[in-house]
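Sequence of VOC family protein (Plantactinospora solaniradicis).
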Amino acid sequence: MAIARFPSIVIDCPDPGALARFYGAMLDWKVDVSSDWAEVRAEYGQCISFQQVDGYSPPTWPTQELPQQMHLDVIVDDLDAAEAAVLDLGASKHPHQPGTSFRVFLDPAGHPFCLCTN
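Predicted 3D structure, token representation.
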């Protein structure tokens, strides 16, 4: 049985609205913008979100001098049960927890991801 469902990709950037409008136009998806967050969403529900990051530096792909900046958000029904399950799989809970409807973890390689209730 899956621990989570329907991942959402979150991309760090300096201007979430501008990036959302770009991808919204490219994909013909609905754009929703707030002050430091934006998202584009398909009619069938798939979503890409954009998060403002101060001092953003773009990746230097394909080199790893500045690696790509993004993380996964996954939807769960029960944060406590999902937390226990991902910890059992080898994740670690990040000490900085900035919200109440989501929790931040690090995968076994150190990449951040969030368990979210919505």
